[in-house]
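Task 17 of the worksheet. Students: predict the tertiary structure of the chain below and write it out as structure tokens. Keep your answer in the requested format; marks are given for formatting as well as content.
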Amino acid sequence: MPWLERFVGSTIRPRGRLARVVLVAAYVLSPTGSAHARRVRPPFEPTDLDLEPSGVLELDLQVGLIRTEEGAGRLLIPDFELDLGLLPTLEVEIDGAYAIEGTPDEPFAFQHSAPDNLWLALKLGLYDGRNESDHSALAFGIQLGPKLPIPSAHGGGVEGVLLLATLYRDLEAVWNVGGFVDPVPGGEAARPRGLELGVDVELNLDQAQHFALSGAISYVCFASDDANQLVTAGGFIWSPSQMLDVSMLGLIGLLSGGDHYGIVLGIAPKLRLFE
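Model answer:
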């Protein structure tokens, strides 16, 4: 399969982003645990512009262990995403996360749950330009939708990201520029809101496209009373087939507002539901 087919209107792509899957029932019905201080907003994860073919469902799942800047531990079980292709240039996404956290005094006691708000979004490919002679491409699109509050929060929210994808031979970069207004956290009066920037990069390592290096940088500048975030991540992806990706990711936070460090394992199976 040509490497260029990973952009808008592609068939099943050879690999996805570092992976996640949906466990919506556990997410919605889980208890919020004991009272604790306002939780730091999870770091922004730059996304890609790979669109699933019509009828193809991708379940992206990440599990991992994170150490926050405050010193507490967080167990991701899981960070998830569900993507369903509706049209060649349109897919629907459900994105969220569930975790259990400790405290700075007992980092890995995991005393309370720490779910994230649920993001329901549409991803739309707007343009796809290719140059077959030098194996380059340029594409752009948008991902936009409402954010639904977890049980301890209230009110709705919204998030949107503009996506610019560039490809030259085996190197792909997807540039993200967006903003958000989150639901109001429990016990608070103000909504987290701000600007988010990031880039997601993949370097294919072999002609058969079974192995790739992956990296990302994300920055969140809050307009609300929250500390800004700057997070870097890097790892590798193994794609034994076009219907499965397996990944390992390490991350390091560079500002006080985000996570300090961690390691995350991912798996992303795909299923064809209809033609």
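Marker's comment: The chain has a mean pLDDT of 86. The radius of gyration is 18 Å.
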